[in-house]
Amino acid sequence: MQNRFASLFIAALLPLLLFRWFVPSPAGQLDFWLMWLVAMVVVGLPLLYAEIGLAHRSQKTPAQGIQELTRQADTTPIWRSFVWLTVLLSLVVAALSINAVSNNVLEATAQMGMSLDIPGYALAVGMVVIAGLLSLLGATTLVASLALIAIAFVMAALPNLSSLALIMTESSLGEWARAVTLALVSVGVGTGLYWFNNPLVSRDPNHSAEAGRNTREIATKTVLPIWLTQLVIGSVALIFSSTSFAPVTALVYALGVLAAGAFFMHYASSQIATRFGRFGLGIATVISIVLTILLVVIATPKVLTMLLVALSVLSALVLAIFSGWLMKISHMRKSLNFKSEGIYNLWRVAIRILVPALIIAAVVGWFVS
């Protein structure tokens, strides 16, 4: 069983780590904050219920559980691609964060008079290797990454509190695209991380979900604490994500990113090792390191950001269609365990129609912005 607080740590970490890639400039745009809030309610919340519902139904890790769920739904194995989308997505997050922060480290050390005479990509590759080795420690790096990144944000935010200002600007479809992106990967829905770290999920491949049916929790008890954490920490990150870092702050943040990269690579390696058990965790970790290095060396932060958006949108659509249209109604109803049929029907309408429609509108917004 997983640490009950792991999902809350993830919900707090992702906004602090990723918001700065999608928040428009200048920061503090009230209309964008309101669009993000709407996206959190109508897109993020239904998808979070879907992911937790699949975790409760399978009670196995994503790579194990998706095989069982597709068999129960009597559907094509192509829907198992959701897990591999989340694996690639986690490696892209690690690559993007490390790639960007390596340049920040070089700038920070130069300002402190300790210039590192190495190319940025070489430093990034070295950080990837270190993160890969740290990933063997498992989820323990999650707490360290959250603590370090939170400290860096506090150090950067305190001097800028007096200059904080909220302004109203003209809304656009491009802003909606960014808001939806924040309600997807930047707060973790569709990444598989909440499924993987759900307390009911067992690492035992022989674990029977039927044996734990009576211990299934009401999904709302799991979802709402995660969602509220995303909302609170996301609001803070939304305001301060564009704040510049002093050299010391940048180095603290870099250490946090290194630990965060290790956690994301741990998720990817665990799913690879679970699906291809003969490889073992060691070989799976090597695969994760090699793939992340390729992403760091071949792609720029801008390209990685575009890849992050594409993968998060595709993963969210797969999750919405599979859970809303292909899973048996009785299975999802029991897994979510809502107190009333009306709430379940409301979720079902949202996940089947509203969520895909709004995500597609966001995709259009990315192209026209």
TrEMBL record:
Presence of keyword Cell inner membrane: no
SUPFAM superfamilies associated with the record: SNF-like
InterPro entries: SNS_sf (IPR037272)
Residue spans crossing the bilayer: 34-56, 77-98, 118-139, 146-167, 179-197, 218-240, 246-267, 279-298, 304-326, 346-368
Entry keywords, A to Z: Membrane, Transmembrane, Transmembrane helix
Name of the protein in question: DUF4010 domain-containing protein
